[in-house]
Amino acid sequence: MKTLLPLLLALGVCATAKAGPALDRIQSSGRIVLAHRESSVPFSYLLPDGRPVGYAVDLCLKMAEAVRKKLKMSTLNPQFLLVTPANRIQMVVDGKADMECGSTTNNAERREKVAFTVPLYITGARYLVRADSGIVELAQFDGKTLVSTKGTTPLKSITQANGERALHINIVEAPDHAKAMEMLAAGQADGFVMDDVLLYGIVSARPDAAKFRVVGKFLTIEPLSIVLPKNDPELKAIVDEEMKRLIASHEAQAIYDRWFMKPIPPKNTALNLPMSYLLKDFWKYPSDQVPY
Which residues, 6+ apart, have CB-to-CB distance to 58 below 8 Å? Predict the structure, then answer.
């Protein structure tokens, strides 16, 4: 029995070292599919020429390069796939995307289907309103219309709060952030509830930005992370290791500053959003474990 133990341990090591389905697909095809969003500024969005850019996109490209090196591939071609809030998780589950590079919250419900790496941002849901509305807090939406984006945690949270607190808010769904913003601007909604950083990003790209403001206390706390397949711990290990390396080397901070503190395309305006104490504290001991 003693002589078998080292052999069994060796076999176990070999088994865990075997590439999972995503890595097999990446290696055999020579490409890695990165899902991105259309209007999640500054995380993942399209420029007028159709090119996907953003904070999460830059981080995903770093992850793709780490995968290339780990698999000892001479080249690895990133291929971009546009996803929506409603289908982003399923695209990863179905193997159509190897990572989702957007503004997706890591929570218990989603962890049943997919995996997440170390959070790249920690935010919370608040409310975008017209500056002349007089609205400054959630209770003032009583009898009014709030829009949120289909398939997002803020939509789920405001729906739950509306029922539990008997707020009498008319909640409507938009297919994406751009449509929700359009509804607010057109007076079809009195507020847009979403992660506050996304609200700041959406407004910054508008010529009439001064007509809107973000108000209210946090409805939720949202740790945003890159989404990965649940059934490929080997891919996750590579991505986790690279994310921790970027944090330790302060490269992640530099990428953060590029997208949150400096002028960004297409309007070349800066969000001027310094890194929050929540993210700074979390990055002191980076982990994919979040208490949500």
Answer: 255, 258, 259
Is 289 inside any structural domain? no
- Note whether 200 and 227 are same-domain residues: no
pLDDT grade for 19, boundaries at 50, 70 and 90 = low
User: Do residues 189 and 65 both lie within one domain?
Assistant: no
Q: Where are the beta strands (DSSP E) in 68-221?
A: 77-82, 99-105, 114-116, 121-123, 125-130, 145-149, 170-174, 191-195, 212-215
Domain of residue 146, residue span: 125-215
Q: How much is the average pLDDT of 278-282? A: 92
Residue 264's domain is classified under what CATH number? 3.40.190.10
Provide, rounded to the nearest whole percent, the portion of the chain with pLDDT above 70: 93
Rounded to whole angstroms, how far apart are CA atoms 136 and 213?
Answer: 9
Domain count along the chain: 2
Whether 115 and 130 share a structural domain = no
Q: Give the separation between CA 41 and CA 2, rounded to whole angstroms.
A: 59
Query: Residue 116: which of 205, 225, 200 has the closest Cα?
Result: 225
292, part of any domain: no
pLDDT tens by residue, 219-264: 998 999 999 999 899 999 999 999 999 999 999 999 999 999 999 9
Mean pLDDT computed over 276-287: 92
